[in-house]
Write a structure and sequence with these properties.
Shape: globular
Largest sheet: 5 strands, mixed
Oligomer: single chain
Number of strands: 15
Strand content: 15-25%
Length: about 375
């Protein structure tokens, strides 16, 4: 199989060849295996690159009004927008990460009964949306422990954060949420001012259906390969943030359903039933997209040389984990971009990695107009930098 056909397959599966109708938001989010939402506006822009005429209000309505989309920590312990019907698959399927937190607490002298009591109390009080402070207060009340404060805002901050004593450790409420991931599924509730809230999925989502972890892991591997295949076990580890041994176990359970594919000297795997779709994958016209910060397409693999020129890796994958907005042409990154709002006007600065054909520059202008509509700007100017 040629690399070009593989990229065509991935672009089509990611919804980056032809935009889907506006009402397809949830279906597209499912097909692309979630949208990273550390920057929530970037998650919306990722969807707008795949869905016709999408605006920020439609994304917000899907999360906070109809609740067909949920915001939760999943792959790589990062926030994602995820289809609510699949939330158990994404969260339970990556829940092995919480085992590390449990071991850390136990290795520092927290007795198993104390840890179990804290986990049960945390999940019990999350029957309604709570801020981090409210969570610490209610868990402290349930455990009859005093609320404590300590410095630990992160990134060198001296900000005080609320903690609950669990054994000998003053445990921040954010860490209680991480620990709770070993037992339950927690998602974000509506913000209160500038504060996020957290709530159990079964108390927030209508028709909630849970999954055992092993079944969630198996389904997650299939979803990953359908969106990002052909891919390797190493790719799956990088995308999920799983321990390699845990991912290997999932892979081995699913191996009878997988098909090996030779791609220009390396071997990847797909779900066997996708064989014909891969064989027929083709880009019938130029595929040009402006993908935002942390777009899933550029986070799906450990080896990214097929999509990003090696000499430009540091332009895309930057310090402190930042992933730049990119210009995607036929499945390959051909530049980066930035935006600046000037009243009702949007200034888009594109930094291509080389000379671009006229048909691509014309397509960039069309994509810039779509981005301006999503960001509620009336005009857009594109500048090559």
């Amino acid at each position: 199989m040629t690399e070009r056909r593989v990229l065509a397959f991935r672009v089509q599966r990611q919804g980056l060849h032809r935009r889907a109708p506006r009402g397809s938001l949830v279906r597209v989010l499912s097909a692309m295996a979630g949208a990273q939402a550390q920057i929530e506006s970037a998650a919306g822009a990722a969807l707008a690159a795949r869905v016709t005429g999408l605006d920020a209000a439609a994304v917000a309505a899907a999360v906070w009004q109809t609740r067909r989309v949920a915001k939760a920590a999943a792959m790589r312990r990062t926030l994602h927008l995820l289809p609510s019907d699949d939330l158990a698959m994404f969260v339970r399927g990556t829940a092995g990460r919480a085992d590390k937190e449990i071991r850390w607490m136990r290795n520092r002298g927290v007795a198993a009964p104390d840890l179990r009591q804290a986990l049960e109390a945390t999940l019990a009080v999350l029957d309604r949306p709570l801020t981090r402070l409210e969570l610490a207060e209610r868990v402290g009340e349930a455990l009859a422990r005093p609320l404590r404060w300590r410095a630990g805002g992160g990134w060198g901050s001296s900000r005080k954060i609320p903690c609950v004593p669990v054994g000998p450790i003053d445990t921040p409420s954010s860490y209680l949420l991480d620990l709770a991931g070993a037992e339950g599924v927690v998602c974000h509730g509506p913000r209160r001012g500038n504060q996020p809230t957290f709530v159990r999925a079964d108390a927030w989502l209508e028709g909630w259906q849970d999954l055992p972890r092993d079944r969630a892991e198996d389904r997650l591997l299939r979803r990953y390969l359908r969106a990002f295949g052909p891919a390797t076990l190493r790719d799956f580890v990088a995308w999920t943030g799983m321990r390699a041994s845990d991912a290997q176990a999932v892979w081995e359970r699913s191996r009878p359903e997988l098909l090996a594919v030779g791609v220009d000297g390396w071997t990847g795997w797909i779900v066997a039933e996708d064989r014909e779709a891969l064989l027929e994958a083709e880009l019938t016209r130029p595929s040009v997209r402006l993908l935002p910060y942390f777009d899933g397409y550029v986070l799906g693999h450990a080896d990214r040389r097929a999509i990003v020129p090696p000499e430009h890796m540091h332009d895309v994958y930057r310090k402190q984990g930042w992933v730049a907005p990119v210009l995607l042409v036929d499945g390959r990154v051909r530049g980066t971009w930035s935006q600046e709002g000037k009243g009702r006007r949007l200034l888009l600065k594109v930094a291509p990695f080389g000379r671009l054909p006229k048909k691509v520059t014309r397509a960039i202008e069309r994509e810039a107009e779509a981005l301006a509509r999503f960001t509620a700007h009336d005009e857009v100017e594109v500048v090559a930098s």
